Amino acid sequence: MKFSINQKKLANALSMLQRCVAQRTTKDILKNIYIKANEDSICLIAHNLKIGMEITIEANVTSQGETLVEAFLFTDFVKKLPDTNVIIEKDINKISISALGSTISLITEDFRDYPFMPEVKVNKTIEIPSIVLNEVLNMTLFAASTDESKINLNSQFIEISNNEITFVCLDLFRISLKKINLKTDIEGTYLIPLKSMQELNKIVSQYKENVDIKMEIGDKNINFISNDIKFTTGILENNFMEYKKILPSSYDTKIVIDRKLFYDALDRANLLVNNSEDHSVRFSIIDNRLEIMINSQIGNFFESIPVKLEGVNLTIAFRPKFWLDALRIVDTDEITLEFTSSIRPCIMKINDNSDYIYLVLPMKLRDEN
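Above: the chain's sequence. Below: its structure in C-alpha cell form.
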C-alpha cells in the first residue's frame, strides 16, 4: 500500500477520528485506526464499540491495500508535519509516514483482526440540513444531564411524528425542546447517548456551507452521513422521561423581555451567587418591571428590567445558571416567559411560539425579612 495525500486534509480527518478511538479498553486493537487505500481515495475508520466514524479522502494512490496503525501516535505525527503532500507506505508489518525529509515508521497490526462495527440495516432515511441540525443540537444538548450513571437523562430523545422531528434533552431541573418541520411519513422514537450527539454536533458545526445530513435509522444503530463522513452511534434501549406531563398547558403570568438585558442582569447577579451558599435569585414581577434580587451574607444585588406583562404579579426564585445557559444560545431580541405559580415550572419561548420550549424548575423562596 502506498499513497500521497495533503497533510491538512489528513490531519483534519484524523483529529475527528481520534474522538472515536477507544482509550480505556480491554481490546487494544480498538486503539488503532483502520486505513484502506482504494483506487483514488483512502478510507479511514475508528470506533470504540459505542460510536464510530468513517471518512473518505481523495488521494494519489500508487498501490492499494489496508492496515491498522496506532491512532494517537500516527495522528500526532501527521499534525506536526508541514502543510505539504505526505507519503504513506506500508511494507510487511510497518508503515512509514514521510514529508520533506522527515520520516517515521510505526508497527502495524493485521487488519483482519479488526472488529468492525456491524452495518446498520437501514429501515428509515431522513435528510436534515446541517445548519438546521447544528442549531437544534446547540439549543438542546446543554440541558442534558452530565451524570453518566443516569443513562436515560445523559442522552438526547428524538421523536418523529406528523411531519415533525422533536429533539429533547433534560436533567432533573430543566427541559430543552426544539421542533423542526420535515416532510416524512416516518414515525418513531429514538434515545441516543449524549456523547454521541455532542460528537455529531462537532461534525456538523464545521460546515461553512449548508449540506444535507442523511439519517439512516436501523434497529440498534443510526448513521449520520454528510459528504464523505459517516458517523455511527448506537440507540439506547432505556425509556425516556415522560416530559410532556411536566409541560404546563396554561399560565397566570406572562412577560416579554429583552433577551440581552435579561442575560446581562443575570450574569452580574451570578457573580454574587457563585460566592454564596444560596444559589438562587429572586424574581419579582411587579406591573411592567422584573426585579432581580439577592440578599446574602456576603452582599446584596438588585436590578430592575422593563417587561411587557400579561396577567398577575408574581415572586419566584431560580438558579441563574439555568437561564444563562439557554440565553447564550438563543439568537433573538426578545423572549417570552410564562409562569403559573411560585412553585411550578416556568417556560421560555421564542417569538411566542412553541417550536422551542425551555422549561426551568424554580427554587424554594427564602424568607428574606
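Residues 259-273 form the longest helix (15 residues).
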